[in-house]
């Protein structure tokens, strides 16, 4: 165990009690509220996630309300947060808790891990905050703080690194007030020990911080390089009929944006011209169900939508038609559907769909 364990723990908690942000989920130990906040804040900044949290609490005051809601409503309210599997898992776990546990959350770390979409970090946060279970959280903020203060260069995304940091975090946690400690270390990492340009000169740990004293702040934590980013080329066919109808298809397969809606999609191997688009085999299949009057490119410069492992180069094609031989929806109802933020931005900007 590091020599300055007690110092670190006490200093951190004292700082947190004096300077913590006032956030709604910090005023309760209700596991439903804590669970909601933790799922929403995964891979999301507090400023972005807070309005979503407040909306979900208002729309679904209890886990029973969330469980009873249609999945499409949950996805619609989640729109803009990304990583939509989080929303689907949230809904599935709400149903499980409601139907199988009578609305009662598991009261310890191991039980919480059984919930869909709940991993080590989320289970540790809920268990410590709601049930005083001394399980240490380890997320990006915690990796950053611990690697710098204690001078650890083991890659944080390696199997060895994950085990090493979890063990250290478990040694550091205050067993009398684990929830307070966990929130303190996350808060400190999010606000002061930030990835770029941390405030080392005024840091409460700078006298004992290994990274600061050895000029290693910019090189810690260490992370192994990710796999190469895949480039994909999306061509969305925005159908406009004479009687104010268009087409949205639901993505049902595994992969990105499962269960969300989108315009008919033709994927190509590169950016294509109108002539090249029409020559695609997928376009021939697409055009069998419609009678096309005209096609025009909406955005000459592709919208680049960056996901964790792939970048989507997207163009929207306006397809005016006289007949559509498939299920359609009125323009006026398009905003009722849960769509990826990429599609939502187009809908918001395209004058035909504006109210």
UniProtKB/TrEMBL annotation:
Substrates-to-products reaction catalysed: Hydrolyzes free adenine bases from 7,8-dihydro-8-oxoguanine:adenine mismatched double-stranded DNA, leaving an apurinic site
What Enzyme Commission number(s) does the record list for this chain?
3.2.2.31
Q: Which cofactor does the UniProt annotation name?
A: [4Fe-4S] cluster
Tell me one GO biological process term: mismatch repair
Please report a single Pfam family linked to this protein: NUDIX_4
Which positions fall inside the HhH-GPD domain? 40-191
Give the keywords, sorted.
4Fe-4S, DNA damage, DNA repair, Glycosidase, Hydrolase, Iron, Iron-sulfur, Metal-binding
- Record has DNA repair as a keyword: yes
What enzyme category does the UniProt record give? hydrolase
Copy out the cofactor comment.
Answer: Binds 1 [4Fe-4S] cluster.
**InterPro entries attached here?**
A/G_AdeGlyc_MutY (IPR005760), DNA_glycosylase (IPR011257), Endonuclease3_FeS-loop_motif (IPR003651), HhH-GPD_domain (IPR003265), HhH_base_excis_C (IPR023170), MIG/MutY (IPR044298), MutY_C (IPR029119), NUDIX_hydrolase-like_dom_sf (IPR015797)
Q: Which SUPFAM superfamilies match?
A: DNA-glycosylase (SSF48150), Nudix (SSF55811)
Keyword check for Transcription regulation, yes or no: no
For this chain, one GO molecular function annotation is: 4 iron, 4 sulfur cluster binding
What family does this belong to? Belongs to the Nth/MutY family.
> What biological function has been recorded for the protein in this entry?
Adenine glycosylase active on G-A mispairs. MutY also corrects error-prone DNA synthesis past GO lesions which are due to the oxidatively damaged form of guanine: 7,8-dihydro-8-oxoguanine (8-oxo-dGTP).
Query: Which NCBIfam families does this chain map to?
Result: mutY
Q: What's the name of the protein?
A: Adenine DNA glycosylase
Look up and give the organism this protein is from. Answer: Marixanthomonas ophiurae
């Amino acid at each position: 165990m590091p020599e300055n364990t007690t110092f670190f723990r006490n200093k951190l908690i004292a700082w947190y009690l004096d300077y913590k942000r006032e956030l709604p989920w910090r005023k309760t130990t209700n596991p439903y509220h804590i669970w909601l906040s933790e799922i929403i804040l995964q891979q999301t900044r507090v400023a972005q996630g807070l309005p979503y949290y407040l909306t979900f609490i208002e729309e679904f005051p209890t886990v029973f309300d969330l469980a009873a809601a249609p999945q499409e409503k949950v996805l619609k309210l989640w729109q803009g947060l990304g990583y939509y599997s989080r929303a689907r898992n949230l809904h599935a776990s709400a149903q499980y808790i409601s139907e199988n546990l009578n609305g009662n959350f598991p009261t310890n770390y191991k039980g919480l891990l059984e919930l869909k979409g709940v991993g080590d970090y989320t289970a540790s946060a809920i268990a410590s905050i709601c049930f005083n279970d001394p399980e240490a959280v380890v997320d990006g903020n915690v990796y950053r703080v611990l690697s710098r203060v204690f001078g650890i260069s083991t890659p944080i995304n390696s199997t060895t690194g994950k085990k090493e940091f979890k063990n250290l975090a478990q040694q550091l946690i205050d067993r009398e007030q684990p929830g307070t400690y966990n929130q303190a270390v996350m808060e400190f990492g999010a606000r002061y020990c930030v990835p770029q340009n941390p405030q080392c000169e005024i840091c409460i740990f700078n006298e004992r911080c290994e990274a600061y004293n050895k000029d290693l702040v910019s090189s810690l934590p260490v992370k192994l390089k990710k796999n190469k980013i895949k480039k994909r080329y999306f061509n969305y066919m925005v159908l406009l009929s004479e009687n104010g109808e268009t087409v949205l298809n639901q993505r049902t397969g595994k992969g990105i944006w499962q269960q969300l809606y989108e315009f008919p999609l033709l994927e190509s191997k590169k950016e294509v011209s109108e002539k090249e688009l029409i020559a695609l085999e997928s376009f021939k299949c697409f055009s069998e169900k419609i009678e096309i009057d005209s096609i025009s490119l909406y955005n000459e410069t592709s919208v680049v939508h960056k996901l964790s492992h792939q970048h989507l180069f997207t163009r929207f094609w306006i397809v005016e038609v006289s007949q559509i031989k498939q299920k359609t929806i009125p323009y006026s109802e398009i905003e009722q559907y849960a769509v990826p933020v990429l599609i939502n931005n187009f809908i918001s900007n395209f004058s035909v769909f504006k109210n």
